[in-house]
Amino acid sequence: MNDSSASIGVFDSGMGGLTVLRALQRSMPHESFIYLGDTARLPYGSKSPGTVQRYALQAARILVERDIRALVVACNTASAFALDALRKRYPELPIFGVVEPGAAAAANSLPGSVLVLATESTVAGGVYQRAILRKRPDLTVHGRPCPLLVALAEEGEHEGAFCESVLRHYLHGHVNAGSISRPSAIVLGCTHFPVFRPALERIAGADTEIVDSAETTARVVADELRSKQDGSTEGQPAVRLLATDGVDRFRRVGGYFLGNSIDEVELVDL
Ligand code: DGL
């Protein structure tokens, strides 16, 4: 399982986690990866913690069966509710979530307030809010569920008037002129949200830092695996993509999240 020639497993509820895979590939260009998008059961973000935990354990099993040396839970909702259960099931496997690295990056922000954009369940569970406040009790942290953004991103929509009005709707009361809670940082607490970064930067303005948990997670994984001296994969790095439904759509739309065109996606059943 911890053979250094094995791939790093990555999973998400859908294609959004490809933004994390992209960041991981940038941080560890010699590694091979195997990615699973549980597209048949997306969204996780409106499901109960128990269901998310069950789905996450099933997704992890598929990857572990394919021989991985580490697991990255790219889904914020699954990171919020399933990390402990996954670590209990696979005590030998290094398992990384995206919430702690995202919260650590947000904790570096200027004094003031932090706005976490995430799914309904992630915001309701309060994990980001607690993780940021543990590191920076002086900050005020607000959570804003943005479920429509997941659907838009999965449709391949990330710019234009419609997206902009949805973003403005979610940011209303936070970044409009004269808002008392104008955030010093906005955390992209959902795998699908990095595709909206340019639009968000425009709307939020230069004084608000955008924190992307994909990038910070990739740095943590790269540091940790290097510090364990796991080494990197010999030969050409490979990327294998699996999905539980809609492989044609995955091929068509996924390239935008990944930043590369996608040739092959394998259909798997959990
Ligand atoms: N991948 C999920 C997350 O990062 C968003 C999509 C969903 O609701 O499943 O929280």
Secondary-structure map with pairings?
Layout: E1 7-12, H1 18-27, E2 33-37, H2 49-65, E3 68-73, H3 76-89, E4 95-96, H4 99-106, E5 113-118, H5 120-125, H6 127-135, E6 140-145, H7 147-154, H8 161-171, E7 185-188, H9 197-204, E8 209-212, H10 213-227, E9 239-243, H11 247-258, E10 266-267
Parallel strand pairs: 1-2, 1-3, 2-9, 3-4, 5-6, 5-7, 7-8, 9-10
Bound molecules: D-glutamic acid.
Residues 12-14, 16, 42-45, 75-77, 119, 122, 150, 190-192 line the site of D-glutamic acid (DGL).
| Number of helical regions | 11
Rg estimate, integer Å = 18 Å
Main sheet characteristics: 6 strands, parallel
Outline = globular
* Sequence of secondary-structure elements: EHEHEHEHEHHEHHEHEHEHE
Distance, first to last CA = 20 Å
Helical amount: 40-55%
CATH class of the largest domain: Alpha Beta
* Structural class computed from helices and strand pairing: alpha/beta
Count of folded domains:
2
Spatially, the strands of the biggest sheet line up as 4-3-1-2-9-10
Q: How many beta-strand runs?
A: 10
Oligomer, anyone?
Answer: single chain
Spell out which ligands are present.
D-glutamic acid
Uncertain residue segments: none
β content, as a range?
Answer: 15-25%
CATH architecture identity of the largest domain: 3-Layer(aba) Sandwich
